[in-house]
Specification:
With 69 residues, the protein is mostly helical. It contains four helices and no strands. The relative contact order is 0.15.
Amino acid sequence: YLGIVAGRKQWHDISEASLRKAIELDPNYADAHFNLAVYYMQHNPPATEVARRHYQRALDLGAPHDPIM
């Protein structure tokens, strides 16, 4: 949750590091992969390839499809 909160506060470095740490601690944590995909899509310009990989991993781990993503 730290990654999400930091992102909302525009603390980009903390947000990315927190989400990556969550994946490092548990590579099968679908929500962290999904949230990291969202994070990368919010870049300007969006980092679509990295976001696509994390979103696909989240789906593979059982996260529900998100039509906005």
